[in-house]
Amino acid sequence: MTAAQNIVSQANATAWARGLGHRYIYQNYASLEQKVFLGYGPDSYDKLNDVSAKYDPSGVFQKLQPGYFKLKE
Q: Is 43 helix (H, G, I), strand (E, B) or coil?
């Protein structure tokens, strides 16, 4: 896992240094420590949190769903 994280970090650093970086991260290719939902942009991220608070106020899908990416980690 550490080697994979280092590769991703170095690849992202190189991409950003060359002006090729992008905040969006495709979930299927993201590693566990990456915050994929922040890649949607601050407005979309806020909207996702608002929808989550409205339709899942107790956080069932954030707490009981095993694995995958969560809005709030």
A: helix
73 residues of the chain, pLDDT tens digit each: 889 889 988 999 999 999 999 989 888 888 777 888 999 999 999 999 999 999 999 988 888 877 778 887 6
- Please report the DSSP string for 6-65 in residue order: HHHHHHHHHHHHTT---S---GGG--TTS-GGGGG-HHHHHHHHHHHHHH-TT-HHHHTS
The total of other beta-carbon atoms located within 10 Å of residue 25's CB is 19
Asked if residues 10 and 18 have their Cβ atoms less than 8 Å apart, the reply is no
pTM of the model: 0.70
Domain boundaries, the chain: 23-73
